[in-house]
Design goal:
The complex is a heterodimer. Chain A is an alpha/beta fold. Helices cover about 40% and strands about 15% of the residues of chain A. The chains are: A alpha/beta, B alpha+beta.
Chain lengths: ~575, ~160
């Protein structure tokens, strides 16, 4: 059967950053009235390395996915739609090896992302949207909902991996009628962006999951705490809440039942520690986001000291699927201790970066090499950083570790929210530990002395090591201080801040020793430990490096080999990047 | 933090105060609206918020300085947000930062004398696959090199002068 063709432009933040808006405008201009096609947008399909992406569904519903699209391609796309001859698009059609990035995934939390138009509730409804909510409200008791989530084995996807049903049940059992539901969308781990993708691409799925949770717990007010740095997510969620309210999925007497619940958005103001649930609650109340002592847990005394339940975006995004397909179907995926799927944001030095959702139990190697295509530019894999500033660096020897909460924890890293930053041999492991310590030092709220001052001192020791001033015994001092900070901090930020240091010491001790004893950085990444020189055999005497040098450390006569004065050199690397003959060497 | 802000038109703030001043827990929302109105949080506004809500200026500033979103000085025409997230760091964000600070002659959270550029180093903009990235007035620029970053800033400077 013939139907109108559809041209769908991927307008998630990544797509827009890569230029999707200009592509959309060009397509709109190229689409004349005589072409039977509908132009619309979708969210993020997760294949960030291919953005901007345009999906063309022809008049038989067959998908032609175009990648790295520029506004200049618009006419060719419209011509193809008009004539039904897609051969002209062969240069921009997705390649089979890139397609495998998506076909090897199992998508539950991301199932609508990059498929439906996030600004149009009808597209969500056409794809089973709000059916789980209807099923729950009309055929299940709150206890049955909690039981179904228990069967599924769903655990918190924000990092800690706490069983979701247990938190719901605790909040349900708590005394009082005024209870709150909170969605933690303060995705602060640098390198993780799956929560943003879900909100931008499938906001109704988040709303539906939260409403099911609200019904199970028995609360009438819910808040989504969104990171201020995600303006597009806030816009799309605001629109989705409006549409859901208009259609009777939100507000009073939802779907004609006795259940009423409303959702509002609160924009965060930029503080990593607010990802910690009690700090988030303080921030919601308009205060400095400093964590509270637990117990009491939020399930007993949370927002305004009323029983509150907090889950992160990805957790909520699984809920409607579990209700529709049954907890057992979710639990059928994964390992003994971790069920279902997990979304990872794979970035760094991989060939194909983006969002990857896979069943628990896959190995890190499957994800990094099987799906993300391994290391780019022909370099060697060195380490993968999991769990952001709270996580750790895992070396090549542990690439066959399976992805589940316990196995990852055994390596010293954590599942975390799913940031997976892949590093090659050009990344210094002492440098990366220092990078994370700089971050946690800045983000420490200052409440606990061990965290506030301990992270500062750790950072100072790491700084002197990368500057070539490390001393014998520094590694042992780092370890001792790490353990002290872990023991003395109140919240997860401080307790886990030493993890990047401890794991790099555990797996890359040699690199620390080389920095300290030999004053060398094997990755050639620490500027203070490098020496630049010019190979006279390769130098053509073009003087390009001398012109670029910001401190006039390079001198020589044109057409004769130049030299670098090491006393003047500030090791900025400008000459190395400028030389077209590979004559500038780094030691 | 400088307290010598130019005087601002406080009547702009009244609708926001009317909406939020009596709502429990809305201090951060009030500060966000204030920054939306003036481009920063002026000291005069802090005193006005204090009068209207009964929260002391010390408490208001305690909250405002805790969060990285709030600024206390007028912002430049272009806000350059340079990402120093993990993916950007691994892909050479340090070198981009060096180039940008050198080109503009300012550090993070500072504004150029001509009032054109403000620089803010942020933890993660969330477009990691385009690393290294910077965002200028909500437009993202990806796959930067030091030279490319300098060129973007020069182009904007030229654009502002014409």
């Amino acid at each position: 059967m013939k139907m109108p063709a559809r041209i769908v432009v991927g307008e998630g933040s990544c797509g827009l950053a890569a230029g999707a808006a200009a592509v959309y405008d060009a397509l709109q201009k190229a689409l004349t009235a005589d072409v039977d096609a509908k132009l619309s947008i979708t969210g993020c399909v997760g294949a960030c390395f291919l953005e901007p992406i345009v999906d063309v569904y022809d008049d038989r519903g067959f998908l032609h996915r175009c990648v790295h699209v520029t506004p200049e391609n618009a006419n060719a796309i419209v011509t193809a739609v008009k004539t039904g001859d897609y051969a002209g698009l062969s240069d921009i059609l997705i390649k089979p090896e890139d397609e495998s990035f998506l076909t090897k995934q199992t998508r539950i939390a991301l199932r609508h992302c990059g498929v439906i138009d996030p600004e149009n509730i009808d597209e969500y409804l056409a794809d089973d949207g709000y059916q789980a909510l209807e099923k729950v409200l009309k055929t299940m008791t709150p206890e049955q909902v909690i039981e179904e989530i228990k069967i599924s084995g769903l655990a918190g996807r924000g990092g800690a991996g706490f069983p979701t049903w247990f938190k719901w049940n605790a909040a349900r059992q708590s005394a009082g009628t005024e209870k709150y539901l909170i969605c933690n969308a303060d995705e602060g781990d640098p390198g993780a962006f799956m929560d943003r993708a879900v909100i931008e691409s499938d906001p109704h799925n988040l709303i539906e999951g939260m409403l099911i949770g609200a019904y199970a717990i028995g609360c009438a007010e819910a808040v989504v705490y969104v990171r201020a740095e995600y303006p597009l997510a806030i816009v799309r969620l605001t629109e989705a809440i409006k549409q859901a309210r208009e259609r009777g999925y939100l507000g009073r007497h939802i779907l004609g039942t006795d259940f009423s619940c409303d959702i509002r958005i609160k924009a965060g103001a930029g503080a990593f520690v607010c990802g910690e649930e009690t700090a988030l609650i303080e921030s919601l109340e308009g205060s400095r986001g400093m964590p509270r002592l637990k117990p009491p847990f939020p399930a007993e005394a949370g927002y305004w000291h009323k029983p509150s339940n907090i889950n992160n975006v990805e957790t909520w995004a699984n809920v409607s699927w579990i209700i529709n397909h049954g907890g057992a179907a979710f639990a059928a995926m994964g390992t003994a201790n971790s069920k279902g799927t997990k979304v990872f944001a794979v970035t760094g030095k991989v060939k194909r970066g983006g969002l990857v959702e896979v069943p628990m139990g896959m190995t890190l190697r499957d994800v990094i090499f099987g799906i993300a295509g391994g290391i780019r530019d022909g370099r060697e894999f060195k380490a993968v950083q999991l769990g952001g500033p709270s996580g750790g660096c895992i070396p090549a020897s542990l690439l066959d570790t399976v992805i589940d909460y316990k196995s990852l924890q055994a390596t010293g890293a954590i599942m975390g929210s799913g940031g997976m930053v892949v590093m090659d041999d050009s990344t210094c492991m002492v440098g990366i530990a220092k990078f994370f310590l700089d971050f946690t030092t800045k983000e420490s709220c200052g409440k606990c002395v061990h965290c506030r001052i301990g992270t500062k001192r750790l950072g100072e020791i790491l700084t002197r090591i990368v500057n070539g001033q490390g001393k014998e015994g520094d590694v042992e001092l780092l370890e001792e201080l790490c353990n002290t900070v872990k023991a003395g901090a109140l919240c997860g930020l401080g307790q886990s801040a030493p993890n990047p240091v401890l794991t790099t010491i555990r797996y890359f001790r040699d690199e620390y020793d080389e920095h300290i004893r030999d004053k060398k950085c094997p990755a050639k990444a620490c500027p203070a430990l490098l020496t630049y020189s010019i190979d006279p055999d390769r130098c053509k005497g073009c003087s390009a490096c001398a012109k670029k040098c910001p401190v006039q450390a390079i001198s020589g006569e044109v057409k004769k080999p130049f030299t670098i004065d090491p006393a003047k050199c500030i090791r900025c690397g400008m000459c190395h990047n400028t030389c077209r003959f590979g004559a500038v060497t780094v030691e | 933090m400088s307290c010598n802000n130019p005087s601002v038109d406080l009547t702009l703030l009244e609708p926001t105060l009317a909406e939020y001043a009596d709502v429990k827990g809305s201090l951060i929302s009030i500060l966000q609206k204030t920054q939306e109105l003036y481009g920063y949080v002026p000291m005069d506004a802090v005193y006005r918020i204090s009068e209207r809500t009964g929260v002391s200026p010390a408490k208001i500033l305690g909250v405002a300085t805790f969060y990285s979103q709030f600024r206390f000085q007028p912002m430049g025409k272009y806000l350059v947000m340079l990402c120093k997230g993990t993916a950007c760091y691994v892909n050479g964000a340090e070198r981009i930062l060096d180039a940008v600070t050198d080109e503009l002659g300012i550090g993070s959270n500072e504004t150029t004398e001509d009032g054109l550029f403000s620089l803010s180093v942020v933890a993660c903009l969330g477009c990691c696959s385009l690393a290294p990235v910077m965002m200028i007035n909500d437009k993202a620029y990806g796959s930067l090199t030091p030279d490319k970053a300098r060129q973007i800033l020069r182009d904007l400077r030229k654009e502002a002068q014409t």
